[in-house]
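Incident log, support desk, overnight shift.

02:14 A customer reports that sequence design results differ from what the structure should imply. Their input is reproduced verbatim below. On-call engineer (initials T.W.) acknowledged and began investigating.
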């Protein structure tokens, strides 16, 4: 499994190569962000009711002759103008493409603020490229449902 610093160096190099047009990305994701607000789960913590969203994104490409797969997960709690996020990063083997935290957990990579920022930089770059030329990035985002189990 990759270490955080190895992944950070690799992503930095991949962003440069992507800007040069040398990497073709396939991005697949699922998000609850655009679901109807009334259907989103709510949690109450310290008297504040939070609306909960989540987003999975799979980043796939060929890099230095090898398959690269990284899946990110973000859980977003929103209450008015307040937002809290939890970010997870996974480097699963090629056969695992499930958007399920429990399945992906054994393949997690510690996600520092620096690594999270670099992944966000890649995301913004790929969206910018897609907007300029939709054939430059294979992008497929779809809605998902989120259910939060109440444990007693």
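02:41 Re-run completed on a clean worker. Output:
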């Amino acid at each position: 499994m990759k270490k955080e610093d190895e992944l950070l160096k690799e992503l930095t190099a991949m962003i440069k190569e992507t800007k040069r047009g040398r990497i073709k990305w396939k991005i697949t994701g699922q998000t609850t962000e655009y679901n109807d607000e009334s259907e989103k789960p709510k949690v109450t913590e310290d008297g504040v009711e939070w609306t909960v969203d989540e987003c999975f994104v799979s980043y796939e490409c060929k890099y230095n002759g090898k398959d690269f797969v990284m899946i990110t997960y973000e859980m977003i709690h929103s209450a008015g103008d307040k937002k809290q996020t939890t970010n997870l990063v996974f480097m699963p083997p090629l056969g695992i493409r499930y958007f399920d935290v429990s399945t992906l957990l054994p393949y997690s990579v510690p996600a520092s603020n620096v690594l999270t920022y670099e992944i966000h930089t890649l995301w913004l770059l790929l969206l910018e490229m897609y907007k300029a030329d939709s054939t430059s990035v294979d992008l497929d985002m779809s809605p998902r449902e989120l259910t939060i189990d109440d444990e007693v």
